[in-house]
Every structure is written in C-alpha cells, then in structure tokens.
C-alpha cells in the first residue's frame, strides 16, 4: 500500500516473520491500522520494508515476532536505524480466537502489542560479542555431542570385538585405552577381505578413531576461541 499522506507523529511497526516472507503493519498514534504489506525476507526486502514504513512517518518502535530467529536480520536493520525493537512471541489469543490467524492480522497484533504495552521485552542484540559467543557455543556443543556419540560407538565396537581381538579388548575399559588399542592393531594384509570380521573390526575402529579425533580437535579449538573472547 502506498501512503496518500504522511505524518510527523511516531508510528509503531509490527512484523509477522517467516523464513521467506515478512508481513508488516503500521499503527498510528491513535492505534489505528494505517497500512500493511508483505516483503521478501532478504537483505533487499528488509530495506524495502524500512523505506515503505518510513514513507508513512517516523518509526520509533517495532514489534517483531521471532526477533532472534526468522526476524533476526530485520531486527538488526531496525536497530541500526535507532528503532526500539520489542520481541513479540506470545500471540494475542483472544484476538486470534475472534478474528482467526492470517499474516496480516498477526502483523497488526504485533504492532498493537507494542502500542498497548502488552509486549515489553527488548529484542536481543545480535550484533555484538554476545551473539558471537552464542554461535560458537552452538558449534562447540555439537562437537561435544559428536565426540561423545563416537566415543560410545567405539566402546560398543570394542565390547563386541571378534575372537581374534577379544582378549586384548577386554582390558580396554576407558576411551583412552580403547584409542591405544585401536592404534596398536596391525594393519590387515592388502588382500584381506573385509568380509572377515577381524579385518572389518580394524577398519571400523580406525574409521571411528579418525572421526573421534576430528570432533575432539573441534572441541579444543572452539574452547580456545571462546576463551579468547
């Protein structure tokens, strides 16, 4: 919608965010819906949304659904323009029951949540060191999970070792001992077929060990990088 008039009074922006599209709505100082429009959830789309919204008047506050996920990119742009972004994650259930759910209604509801003061939580800052720490922690947690999972698989492999290796494996009760065991196993002769359990055991053990070390290296590197922050 193109504005026919603009105002100098501050307006409230509400945005219903999705992975591919964002729907925006504007509310004036009297709480009346001025306009709404849909934009692509891309950098270009965020700028288009901002230009569209400010063509109606100054924007000082915005209610953004999922401001830390689907709305994170738009939230960063609005914050850069000195807009106070309020996180709107709790739906206005009475309004939804009365009018149903559409992107247009949800965008309007987000604006009204800010206008009425129902939503007050300031959106998280995703532009500084806190966001960097969060992302690195996500990667480190994944690496820890991967190392733990592979360590458990290595334990299970050693526990069910074929007869040729059973006696040696029985004494390996810790991850460090299992690693030492796998490292010490002789490489099967080139013509040995993997259909032989003893050869398959060595091959599987070394494969798991390679991936375990990679995951552990990631944990070590990410821990060092987080500590440096």
UniProtKB/TrEMBL annotation:
Q: Which domain of life is it from?
A: Bacteria
State the name under which the record lists this protein.
Answer: Transposase IS110-like N-terminal domain-containing protein
A single GO BP annotation from the record?
Answer: DNA transposition
Q: Which Pfam families match?
A: DEDD_Tnp_IS110
Q: Which species is this UniProt entry from? A: Gordonia alkanivorans NBRC 16433
Q: Name one GO molecular function term.
A: transposase activity
Q: Which residues form the Transposase IS110-like N-terminal domain?
A: 13-159
